[in-house]
Amino acid sequence: xxxxxxxxxxxxxxxxxxxxxxxxxxxxxxxxxxxxxxxxxxxxxxxxxxxxxxxxxxxxxxxxxxxxxxxxxxxxxxxxxxxxxxxxxxxxxxxxxxxxxxxxxxxxxxxxxxxxxxxxxxxxxxxxxxxxxxxxxx
Length: 138
Hints:
It comes from Neotoma lepida (Desert woodrat). This is IQ motif containing F6. InterPro entries: IQ_motif_EF-hand-BS (IPR000048), IQCF (IPR039887). By secondary structure, this protein is mostly helical. The protein has one helix spanning 2-114, and strands at residues 117-124, 129-136. It has a two-stranded antiparallel ribbon with strand order 1-2.
């Protein structure tokens, strides 16, 4: 019986040792898998952080480009408006000047026909204007 008993105990010890070895191996493999997964998760997290920062930079670049484009368009509109207003003002000024010249010419003709002739001369000195006017009535 002792031989059988020792064989049974040895067999049980071997089974116990095998179970213990399987547990140690599974614990070790679990640690290795968890370490690998942690390493992969940290790598993915680093890549995600980098990608988010790149997206933020690209978005900021797009915003700056859109702002520059908007600013250029606004300046172009302002310049076109200024040129149109200048052209309109100059046209009105030229029309008013032409009208004044026509009125002056008619007035001079009328004055010379109805009142006589106006003769005169002027001289500009340092700070004075000397004006001699002679009106002749016919």
